[in-house]
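sanity check this fold:
=====
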Amino acid sequence: MMLLALYTCLLWLSTSGLWTIQAKDSDAGVSERNPHRDLAPSNTDFAFTLYKHLVASAPGRNVFISPVSISTALAMLSLGASGYTRKQLLHGLGFNLTETSEAEIHQGFRHVHHLLRESDAALEMAMGNALFLDCSLELLDSFSEDTKHYYELDALAADFQDWTGARRQINEYVKNKTRGKIVDLFSELDSSAMLILVNYIFFKGTWAQPFNPESTREENFYVNETTRVTVPMMFQSSAIRYLNDSELPCQLVQLEYTGNETVFFILPDKGKMDTVIAGLSRNTIQRWSDSLTSSQVDLYIPKVSISGAYDLGGIMRDMGIADLLNNQTHFSGITQEAPPKVLKVLHKAILQLDEKGLEAVAPTKVSLQGAPDPLTIHFNRPFILMIFDHFTWSSLFLGKVVNLT
């Protein structure tokens, strides 16, 4: 938390720029370089690349990931990779090793991880990594020490000859770490894996401007032209940062959680989801942050839990980053014994959206005499969701929400 005291003014999503900060050292002689923010551009570029890949590979389906959590897990895994695979992994994550050293990358992730875990007390967030290895294997001291120092990795022995017991052990561990919010992370009935890295994150924020539970109503969510489902729809009418984009076919609002998190809800025009996703980038977020204006909005957002679970090894292979699954020589720096034949890397992210705020809110709708009618934006069809952390500039979540069954 000492890092928080070093900065007295943070400009986020303002006209001064998404990646701009004004900083004042509270202690003379303290370096102004911020390792956690040095990672931000690369992490964000990787986030959109991964997100677009997942959307393209799962047409018509929900996609939900925590990019910063995935980047953290893969950067950590590079500590056990051989020379070429290590460079391939870090390059695939967007890092130029001639400009940023490996030590600086890992130190930056260490700061990001620490700051996110020490987020505002009003948030419910549980995130972490755990490595389960077969009882016949022993970690190399260098890998064990480095991953503990930079990433607070938990390494636990499991008996993969008893697959049912090992699966139960993994699921119980994650369930306990997330206070029961993530259950059954691992469901495979059998596997030849001898090393399993699990990466998990659960998040439930507290709105700076809450929704009133009394205004929540059951409404239709239109999955497509022929399918609809019923969902609880939250409502508020207030001054909200809003934009009807003139370049991409969409409307969007920006809401704030207490603490450091900000949320974009993006509603593409009908049939234009793919167009909007193709246009997402750091520059797009910058342009939106410069263009959003405060407007009176009647806002409807579903009250839902959104989740995504992925085998990252297969995804990275498909993206051409690294073959994490089948080549034993790639990860010779993890265990003292011969490298395991199969390494699995699993990611699961869950977000809960509800009405909760710090203060109770009255269910009244205020209209000023002579004021124009409020805009109405109704998230009752497929939409895009993005959550960023102000302080670390991390992309906490990216989602494409298609079906709320």
